[in-house]
Amino acid sequence: MVDLIYLHFFFDIGANVVYNTDTTFRRWIMGTRETTCCFSGHRPMKLPWGMRESDDRCIAAKQWISGQLEELYSLGYRHFICGMAIGCDTYFANAVLNLRDFHPDVTLEAAIPCADQSNRWNKKQKEAYAGLLSRCNSVKVFQEHYTNGCMQQRNTYMVDRSSALLACYDGRPGGTMSTLLYAKREGLDIRVLDIDSIKTESYS
């Protein structure tokens, strides 16, 4: 059994789908690939500002994400997929939820590599994570426990269901680089924020 009882979700690991049961009905909300955008970015240990979200660079990164989301919405994007890790994923998820406040047709999907993703996080991070998940339109959980391949499985899923990718990236090898390279091979519209210089650049 998945130990996320602080969330009001019904988990079906076999189908990899979690239905929000806070509403009066259960529904699986998923956009078409043409109207779906996913995100990849670094965790705090790889960010120049670490956990200091009051840092001007962090504020600039959040503003860039929000600006890109507004532009993507104007281009017809409505469904957004996020891996829900701490750091840049959290910035993205919050920005999508803010966008949804103004545009109710926006949907946020959490793509969680394993149900115990947050096991090693501190109490504040776990509480923030629970709050974000409770506001998602849909949640997909790939497996109950962490294994070496679950992150890659999650990243592949996001790219395969999207036509655009936003990324906050520092140029170093890792999961974000792998996701960017795969997205490039798949022909996604890729928009990258260079977090070391806080500037946008083409990755096409």
Describe what this molecule looks like in 3D.
There is one protein chain. By secondary structure, the chain is an alpha/beta fold. It has one domain (29-202): 3-Layer(aba) Sandwich (Rossmann fold), CATH 3.40.50. It has five helices and nine strands. It has helices spanning 56-74, 88-102, 123-135, 150-160, 175-185, and strands at 9-12, 17-20, 36-41, 79-82, 107-112, 138-141, 164-169, 189-194, 199-202. It has a seven-stranded mixed sheet with strand order 6-5-4-3-7-8-9, sandwiched between helices. It has a two-stranded antiparallel ribbon with strand order 1-2. Helix 1 (56-74) packs across helix 2 and helix 4 packs parallel to helix 5. The protein starts with 8 loop residues before the first strand and ends with a strand.
